[in-house]
Amino acid sequence: MIGASSIRKEGRAKVLGTAIYTDDKFMPGALHGLTVRSEVPRGILRAIHFGEGIPWDEFTLVTAADIPGTNLVASVVDDQPFLIGIGEEITHSQQAVLLLAHADRHLAEKARRAVRLEIEELPAVLDIQSSLDLQTVIYGDNNLLKEIHIAKGDPDPVWAQAAHVVEGEYRTGAQEQMYIEPNAMLSVVEPRDGALQVTVWGSLQCPYYVHGALRQLFGLSEKQVRVVAMEMGGAFGGKEDYPSVNGGHAALLAWKSGRPVRLIYDREEDLACTTKRHPSRTRLRTAFDAEGTLLALEADFILDGGAYATLSPVVLSRGAVHAASVYRCPHVRIHARAVATNTPPPGAFRGFGAPQSLFAMERHMDICARKLGLDAVELRRKNFLRMGDTMATGQVIREDLDLASIMDRALAAIGYRDKRAAFAITNQEDGPIKRGVGFSVFMHGCGFTGNGESHVASVAGVEGLADGTVAVLAASTEMGQGKNTVFAQIVAETLQVPVEQVETAEVDTDRVPNSGPTVASRSTMMVGRILEDAASGFKQALVQQGFLAEPYTPESFRAAVAKAVATLGSLRCYGQYHRPPNISWNDVTYQGDAYPTYSWACYAAEVAVDLDTFEVKVADFAAVQEVGRVVNPTLAAGQIEGGVAQGIGWGLWEEVTMQRGRMVNNQMTNYIIPTAMDLPRMQVIFLENAHVGGPGGAKGIGELPMDGPAPAVVNALENALGALRLDEVPMTPDRLLDRCEEVSHG
Amino acid sequence: MADRIDLTLKVNGADHRVSVPPFARLLDVLREDLRLTGTKEGCGEGECGACTVLLNGRVVNSCLVPAVQVQGAEVVTIEGLADGENLSSLQAAFLTHNGAQCGFCTPGMLLSATDLINRCPNPSDDQIRDGLSGNLCRCTGYAKILDSVHAAAADGGAAR
Predict the structure, then answer these.
(1) Judgement on whether residues B72 and B93 belong to the same structural domain of the protein
(2) The model's pTM
(3) Which residues of chain B have a pLDDT value below 70?
(4) What are the tens digits of pLDDT across the range A361-371?
(5) Is the pLDDT of residue A271 over 80?
(6) Whether residue B69 is found in the same domain as residue B94
(7) pLDDT tens-digit profile of A407-427?
(8) Kindly report the CA angle at A606 between A605 and A611, in degrees rounded to 5?
(9) What is the pLDDT of residue A478?
(10) Which end of chain A is more exposed for a tag (fewer CB within 10 A), N or C?
(11) Average pLDDT in the A120-149 region?
(12) Any domain includes B84
């Protein structure tokens, strides 16, 4: 049970090829839906022209004018339309204007190409600096999607008195989630009892987000909308908010046509129009005393939020809270802004703002160490947060936190000292290969930022089935992370039965309660904790009603459940999130407990740079983390290894190239993710420290491994190559060549 | 050009006759005509390998194979690896060692791994990396996939 590497629940279907993903679902008579998009970054839509040679009368066509309810996607801020109408403003190059559907998908594609949009172009804002300049205002009166201030003490008097003040600017690029299954939706809309019934099956992380979006789009009641999460071929945040858009589009076509509709994106469309990691620019200013004690920190953290707010306010929030990272500092000022640009809105991607601000801080600490003439290890050791210290938001560390031990363990695993000494000699030799080691220390807040968990007030449950087994009822989705298995382990542990006696119910909003979105490293810790309560209540109910007597065997438990279900008809027990009494948060001042707890880590990387090609090979990698108690060591290691792979990709190779506000390398051939050839074997080490608020002591794990690899790898590049301007990711061969030439040209 | 073309092919040991549009791909024949949906489409341009199948014993991306070329051919898909309820050694190893996370690359990965182990019964890490370099996985970082292939090799390879 908890602590065991139970076999993935849905694993057998996956290795047999029988798991049913959205596009695998058999749907006789379905039409194929397609989306016509703007292709210019900003303008006024004047007309839609339907070209010749297409039997348009056979097509189902949907425009903004057809929308029965509200033409706004329900999100953090409701500012994004499903479709742009005639006379309305197009705000990015992938804006949906027209939906079409036909039984013949080849003819549908031909029709899409035959549509011509008449657009009166307007000047567009395409990057962070242009948005800040306010030459063109495209959002509100200041182009700001969200602004956050976090303050602790007062840094202003410190700068003049400090022995050292170090400033730096760091940038990170957009990153594509690149789930292997592109976005996919199926929908049926049919009358039932004189009213509409909208059903969507899809590849989606957050069934109740889509449910809410469909209700608003059609103006329907809760019971009239049903959302079913199919087997999902990866997500990583990329199917957090976007499914509210394409789910709505599929349902509009199904409603207008009266037929089932499949809306399956091909890879090029998926890459061009769906969400990415937010590009960022961070300016840091830090003051130290002569011994290297951190005295003050100022961060100016900016995200490119694209054309609509979507999730940017909350991505910004997490990034801002993580900006001061793992260091004790008496005076902190963080100014965070998400700015609007005429680009497709970025969204959630594993890490959710934290990788951006942590990259800046962990690069900056290495640069500070160099400028102060101190060792990067000892500078960090001197300044780590410990139990009793106060973070930037005023949150007091209440757990026994020993970051130095985590760091030392990672450095020992990679052989940091020996390798640095050896490379200092070998890098003097003539050959083109230069080697380096580097590391990063970081944390990731578990669950939603601030009051998010209280707002969602998640519910999850446990249901007895006729055969005596138990089903987990939660809207949390399986995207490969292992939710089905981990939830079953948590419930089995509470019920003291084998994990084989617990299964997770299909995620169908007609059956499962709203346990919140499957995001924010919250499923195991937050929903798992609710499931512990629900399972505990379930067992008590069986005992109190005389079906079960303790102690019991798995067989007698099974018989008791079967008897209870036969007698009572159904047996369900629910739990709900309750804010622990000792944590509080103020949304206005950004003061308080930003997260109930954090997972902590140190990652170390060894790189080899080829100065003939400027290619970088990651030769070794050690990932040491404290994530509370590990529920399933094999699945957890898989999460870390996969996250590290994505982090290395972001650090070195994965670049979204934009031209006129449009991604132009929107193919797998020219957007490069790591292959099996590109990654080393990783050392994954868990230091367990049970957390009282998590199920069986578990904390969050999913996003943590995304935060550390990029700064560790770039710090290793500095060790290999010396003090170059290594202030940006991805550090592609082209960029690395430029940085080397800056030095050689003085 | 004819509206449809008629083909016969053998898939997972069974003979099939299909009538498909002239520009159909082998992937379309498998997924749409034969309803063998275990074979996945991830990119449609031969980069991701999710659509990998064995065609006359060789690994191919079925999204790049025109259906007209498979007349009389023998195809093995993910649905053809198990013997009834009995998983192949590789399938069993992927299940035990968490070689499949989201599972979308898994069918293609298993076909490439089957071909690899048939050619090279005891592969090294580097041989596995090379053999699977045409199959992208975004979940695992490939470590558990390497573990799975090694475990299957130790268990006697792709043979059941």
Answers:
(1) no
(2) 0.98
(3) 1-2, 157-160
(4) 999 999 999 99
(5) yes
(6) no
(7) 999 999 999 999 999 999 999
(8) 130
(9) 98
(10) C
(11) 98
(12) no
CA distance A485 to chain B (A): 11
Residue B136 lies in a domain: yes
End of a domain among B50, B79, B108?
B79
Question: What pairs with residue A299 in β-bridges?
Answer: A284, A334
Distance in Å, alpha carbon of A183 to nearest chain B alpha carbon: 10
- Amino acid identity of residue B76, one-letter, is V
Strand-pair category, A331-340 with A294-306: parallel
Q: Check whether residue B111 and residue B49 sit in a common domain.
A: no
What confidence tens digit (pLDDT) does each residue in A665-675 have? Answer: 999 999 999 99
B70 lies in the same domain as B97? no
B59 in the same domain as B104: no
A356, containing H or E segment: helix A354-372
Mean pLDDT is lowest, of A401-415, A673-687, A689-703, B139-153, for: A689-703
- Enumerate domains of chain A plus CATH numbers: 22-122+178-273 (3.30.365.10), 280-449+590-744 (3.30.365.10), 458-576 (3.30.365.10)
- Residues A544-550 have a mean pLDDT of 97
Residue A474: partners with Cβ closer than 8 Å, 6 or more residues away: A460, A461, A487, A504, A505, A507, A512, A513, A515, A527, A531
Range of the domain at B36: 5-79
Residues B10 and B38 in one domain: yes
Residues of B within 8 A of A701 (CB-CB) are none
Residue in B82, B104, B128 closest to A180 by CB: B104
Q: B140 contacts in A (CB within 8 Å)?
A: 638, 641-642, 645
For residue B159, is it within any domain? no
CA distance A398 to chain B (A): 33
- CATH number, domain of B126, equals 1.10.150.120
User: Contact A326/A442 with Cβ under 8 angstroms?
Assistant: yes
Distance CA A697, CA A694 (A): 5
Matching residue, tokens 């008449």:
A118
Give the model's pLDDT for residue B160. 45
